[in-house]
Amino acid sequence: MDTQQFDALIIGFGKAGKTLAVALANAGKKVALVERSPKMYGGTCINIACIPTKVLVNAAEHHQSFDEAMAHKTTVVTRLNEKNYHMLADRETVSVIEGEASFVDDRTVKIVAGDDELVVSAPQIFINTGAESIIPDIPGVDKPFVYTSTELLDKMTQPKQLAIIGGGYIGLEFASTYAKLGTKVTVFERGDALLAREDPAIARATTEALQAQGIEIVFSVDVTAIEGESTATIRTVNHDDYAGYDAVLMATGRRPATMSLNLPAAGVATDKRGAIVVDETLRTSRSHIWAMGDVTGGPQFTYASLDDFRIVRSQLLGDGLYTRAKQKTLPYAVFMQTPLGRVGMTEAEARATGREIIVKELPAMAIPRLHVDNATTGLLRAVIDANTGQILGASLLCRNSPEVINIIKTVMDNGLPYTVLRDQIFTHPTVSEALNDLFA
Questions:
Q1: Would you state the pLDDT for residue 1?
Q2: Which residues are catalytic?
Q3: 168 labeled part of a ligand binding site
Q4: The whole model's pTM is what?
């Protein structure tokens, strides 16, 4: 079989991969981009994660029905998927190839789509295959009413009762949204509290907000089996059994999607979780192969993947100065009906550094704008270095927090003291003006 030659081969249509394809094509390179599913043109974010879930969050907030929400979700995802495909496929020097990629050697990749097979080669290869759901070895996980987050987004019939195995960020977003859409939701969490990475005060406030939505949360529970024919019964250790669920979501984490790549054939090293090991410039153990985004085992955010693109672009098309060591602190948001925005350290993490710190706290009830919106649930916390006045971290559990957290990050990135926010003039009535009071 003949081997097709390209200047660059990108495996995976994620944020870093697709953006790099455009940059390399603009630089005159002949680029091949391989994606195993046409449903994933544009990457995880727009197809099965950020965008469709936030469409549902917004629909629930605006009291749309489940059917209306899912129809809108499908329209938005289809539009963005097609836009992303044509953004690359319509370029003369970019070839979008559908199929499953696996390495033959460190410069050659075999691509299989059904009975079709293609071999491509390039002196530079970039891996951007993202992450995939972890399915624990529990009897019954193969039943038709058990779903991953990807599969549940394709279920167009609303579950009357939804069991969610796992109380992490993905599970809580689905719990809050589906509850708002009218589904009875139960969350099964192995630990004795939600959100172990967060300040305990924020975790407690989040739990209370979810319970106020009518969500049942079962703590300190191990699920031993999922049984039943038309509906699910959740069997647990040292707990009662829970029955009557017409859908079960396995929200038990995600891992780097590397299993099918045959990385040993290329000599690309991975860690024990299957994540590709990279250096500060995102080169793998083969200097002409790079890895970007979730597949490296780092934070699973599309904007983190975009920043990985910036590192690779700097190395290949720029001055080479931007590396992982220069990446700023990443903020993140959990888009529940009362969303959580977070950046930097928690109180415990800050105290562990030995710094003298100041903790600021403000209930969402104190924010006039949230009274206007009838959304006074939540809590705002910030941690400040007492000696320098610099903000070490903040957690905002309230409406609009995913937007407002970016203001705090900008102040942190520029080394400015908290007094900049304390004394800033903000428009009124807004949630951002609450930073005056939080940092007072």
A1: 66
A2: 428
A3: yes
A4: 0.95
